[in-house]
């Protein structure tokens, strides 16, 4: 029977990913709890239990101090009783009894069972918390379990994860049993149990997908400089490399676009602009505004701001700005520059208006000078 217990413990630990010693310790603590329940002991400081991990033999030991006058029968034994067992006992000696767990009653057995269950729950909770805390910032493959108006519950292996409404992507359906990749944001405790919070809208989800799909990024040959995203609509990601023989854009796209296509499939068709980073800020901004083409870019940098004035052809203005300003907004976040976009005709009109304003000012100044000269000249005398 004891050997069967040991085998059952080992199978349970393998199934739940626990260490057998964790269960052995839980059983020993449960035996002590059973003793306390059986004998209504106020303290169990003088009680300890052992479980042999090889044979499964269980023992409980009760220690009592030999005293002259007995006050606490649970922790003390009188000198007379001790010497009745062995004449060599003296005051302050410790007498150890061995108790048999089989002698405990039904209530004690229930207490032991409850203690073991609680220990298992605690051990598994701590293990989940430790495992996923170390995985924050990584990807996890999960299966959708259920969905309501506020959140989606996902099975990510050892634990259930929560996807809140703010972390969801509008392109996802979250159908039951649908498998997808999730970004692990954080691990919190809720009602005494660990809760893993994941995201489908975080920019680092895209970053990690590229690291997973592109070996050159995983190995460090190609570096992701920045990644900005409006989930469900568009992502801009800038990449660079120090290896002149490597094309960072080609590495990310892959042969026949297979690498980026896998990422697009995972994101349910969200648009991705892969931008080549450049140390020249002008070129970097020009790249960031793609698919639009900029005619010229003027940078103005102060201690408080970084302003980029971009001029594009008339037929490129709407493309450069993007729907609801999205392309310009993402380009600004990607580069760190505030971007002001104007068309060539708008710039030309502004220059003409400025020229005409200066011309009008000059003309008004000239008129005033003529009037002053006329008023200051002496009137001609008429002949008598």
Description:
- It is a single chain.
- The protein is an alpha/beta fold and 384 residues long.
- It folds into four domains: 2-124, N Utilization Substance Protein A, Chain:P, domain 4 (2-Layer Sandwich), CATH 3.30.1480; 135-199, OB fold (Dihydrolipoamide Acetyltransferase, E2P), CATH 2.40.50.140; 215-277, K homology (KH) domain (GMP Synthetase, Chain A, domain 3); 280-359, 2-Layer Sandwich (GMP Synthetase, Chain A, domain 3).
- Helix content is 41%, strand content 27%.
- It has helices spanning 2-16, 20-39, 79-85, 106-133, 203-213, 215-219, 248-253, 258-266, 281-288, 317-321, 326-335, 344-376; strands spanning 47-51, 58-67, 76-78, 94-99, 139-147, 151-155, 160-164, 179-190, 193-199, 222-230, 234-241, 271-276, 296-301, 306-312, 338-343.
- The strands form four sheets. The chain has a five-stranded mixed β-barrel. Strands 1, 2, 3 and 4 form a four-stranded mixed beta sheet that branches.
- A hairpin with a 4-residue loop joins β13 (296-301) and β14.
- α2 packs antiparallel against α4 and α5 (203-213) packs antiparallel against α8 (258-266).
- The protein is elongated and about 130 Å long.
- The model has no long low-confidence stretch (mean pLDDT 85).
What is this structure, in a nutshell?
The chain has 384 residues and is an alpha/beta fold. The chain has helices spanning 2-16, 20-39, 79-85, 106-133, 203-213, 215-219, 248-253, 258-266, 281-288, 317-321, 326-335, 344-376, and strands at 47-51, 58-67, 76-78, 94-99, 139-147, 151-155, 160-164, 179-190, 193-199, 222-230, 234-241, 271-276, 296-301, 306-312, 338-343.
